[in-house]
Amino acid sequence: MKITSKELRQKWIQFYESKGHEDIGAVSLIGDGSTGVMFNVAGMQPLMPYLLGKPHPAGKRLCNVQGCMRTVDIDSVGDPSHFTFFEMMGNWSLGDYFKKEKTAWSFELLTKVLGLDQKKLCVTVFEGNSAAPRDDETAELLAGLGIARDHIFYLPKSDNWWELEGTTGTPCGPDNEWFYPLDEDKPNPVFPDDYVEIGNDVYMQYKKTETGYEPLAGKNVDTGFGFDRMLLFLNGLSDGYQTDLFLAAIEKLESLSGKQYAAGGEAQKAMRIIADHTRTTVMLIGDEQGILPSNTGAGYILRRLMRRAIRYCKSLGISSGAMCEVAKIFIETVYGEAFPLLLEKEDYILEEIAKEAERFETTLSQGMKEFEKCVSGLERKNAFMSQSNPAYVKETVIGGKQAFRLYDTYGFPLELTQELAAERGLSVDEAGFDAAFKEHQEKSRVLPGQFKGGLESHSDMAVKYHTATHLLNAALKSVLSPDVNQKGSNITDERMRFDFNFPRPMTEEEIKATEALVNAKIAEDLPVVYREMTIDEARAQNFVGVFDSKYGDVVKTYAIGEFSKEMCGGPHAERTGALGKFKIVKEQSSSAGVRRIKAILE
Fold first, then answer.
1. How many Cα atoms occupy the beta-carbon half-sphere of 462 within 13 Å?
2. Is the per-residue pLDDT at 39 higher than 90?
3. The pLDDT of residue 458
4. Omega before residue 413 within 30° of 0, cis
5. Is 585 exposed, middle or buried (0-12, 13-18, 19+ CB in 10 A)?
6. Residues of 84-113 as b/e, b for ≥16 C-beta within 10 angstroms?
7. What is the predicted pLDDT for the residue at 553?
């Protein structure tokens, strides 16, 4: 069955809407800190409070296509199947239907809607252990639908139990996974060697605790089907970069480089890395909680991806400007309809990519020279020592301080230095790098999961600064124009940085008026009131946010009297009186049509 990405999105949503589900749209890629992870790594992650029993305003039956990001496989990107950004097609029952309905609907979707042969489907279910019983109920339901019993396999917890690693207090339980032959025409395919997993249904009956599992008050269903993988599979492809999600980007890189993707080799690997990392860059900068490249936290991951892509542009013999050309394709052609905020932020995204590319271009050649000095130093030492001592074992490790110098002075992420070293048969003293990094970054050290609203930590001071961004946003709307909107922020324990759209520099009078208005609201000691509500409710109550794109039908809102009303997921002070005195220390250009304020709280 040949199908486009647009058609697959529509089929998924329309099918579950026909079963009484509400499309809740996608939410931010950036984790809110509640689950201990930096990015949303699964479609169900933003729904955890509701899977744990909190009522969802959209009801008990939900569906969406959710963007996700995983960084553990960055070094694997370049093969046919690894991506940093991907999407999950999901649907959920919050204490409503359970295994009988879900098995039937997944079977119907796969066989009736997507046209798979039911005789070739294979499924796996949980074999049971001392903590939870064997899932015979699901196996019987699947057999009743017409799946051959010799196509139903019982597998252990490592295969058929779902939980979010590294977290507690989160829902989990047995699942059944759906498989289909890689080659539909191959006679007598052998499971699992000749099959590919196409999705799974998780039956969330338990909550993960520090010591084990306990039953959930209500049983839930979480379905996850990989959008990118399903698109690949349904089109009979074995290379994820040949779906319509990537084709235009690959063609652009071929045109710019004069090299052919189909020829394979290093050029093909480079095109995959550039395409994947550029797509993820677009999604992170263009996110509703959009981040920018930096040397800490989520911004560091973004910088690492961007600079890796730029390096591979060099290997193809093309300029780093190729990232902007590929980014335009993802924004305008591939994802603009599904993620309309990308179109709204297109100029901003492209400008930030260009700025980071320019920053890295200025240091890349110098950094490469420094790296070559490190390698040459090792080679000279090894040659000298080998001459004087035939039993000498050659040193193959680049020092941690040298690697940190490459990072601190030339902007080389550690992983880039490691990658360059591996190409020369060397490694890097990672512990030494970490020690140097820790010493340098002590004041701004951050933990995974603590990134929301531009914060680099969740300290008391950073929370105050974040609350101050709300006051500043409202003040700028009052002093300059109601059309002023936040375009990005970065917050540390020492200062705040706030980007906003405005066509010219602020006058000294405007700066003073803005500062005075923020301080007036601090002096009033206004309460900061948190509420969750639907988008329609937020719109009706004049909350500031993105209403015309699908970033979730349920939003978190914070009101500071009638002065500031924003949708936001970050932590906030309880009252404005805790903030101290607000002072603008600099107002400058950030990019075309975007200004930047740097401010402190005294």
1. 21
2. no
3. 67
4. no
5. exposed
6. bbbbbbbbbbbbbbbbeebbbbbbebbbee
7. 61
Q: Residue 457's pLDDT is what?
A: 54
- Asked if 183 and 148 touch (Cβ cutoff 8 Å), the reply is no
Q: How far is 266 from 526, CA to CA, in rounded Å?
A: 59
How confident is the model over 308-337, as pLDDT tens digits?
999 899 889 999 999 999 999 999 999 999
Provide the 8-state DSSP code for 118.
Answer: G
- pLDDT score recorded for residue 550: 41
At 499, which amino acid appears?
D
User: Token digits for 481?
Assistant: 């124009």
Which residues make Cβ contacts (< 8 Å) with residue 479, sequence separation at least 6? 510, 513, 514, 517
Q: Which of 295, 182, 160, 169 is nearest to 239 (CA)?
A: 182
**One-letter amino acid of 528:** V
pTM of the model: 0.68
Q: Give the CA radius of gyration of the chain.
A: 26
**Residue recorded with tokens 């996850």:** 224
Instruction: Say what the pLDDT of residue 515 is.
Output: 94
Task: Give whole-number Cα distances, 246 to 114, 235, 390, in Å.
Answer: 22, 14, 53
- Biggest CA pair distance of the chain: 81
Return the pLDDT at 37. Answer: 65
Residues 51-61: what's their mean pLDDT?
88
The secondary structure of residue 193, as a DSSP letter, is T
Residue 141: enclosing H or E segment and its boundaries? Answer: helix 136-145
pLDDT at 33: 55
507 CB-side CA count, 13 A: 5
Rounded Cα gap, residues 516 and 505, in angstroms: 18
Cβ neighbour number for residue 588 with a 10 Å cutoff: 10
- Residue 520 tokens read as 């007036």
Between CA 495 and CA 367 the distance in angstroms is 30
Q: Which helix (H) or strand (E) holds 221?
A: strand 213-226
Q: Among 520, 522, 511, 504, which Cα is nearest to 479's?
A: 511
**Three-state SS for 218?**
strand
- Mean pLDDT across the chain, nearest whole number? 87
pLDDT category, 137, cuts 50, 70, 90? very high
Report CA-CA distances (Å) from 600 to 148, 206, 560: 67, 46, 20
Quote the pLDDT of residue 444. Answer: 36
Extended beta strands in 343-495, E state = 397-398, 427-428, 486-491
> pLDDT grade, residue 32 (50/70/90)?
low
Strand (E) positions, 192-271? 195-208, 213-226
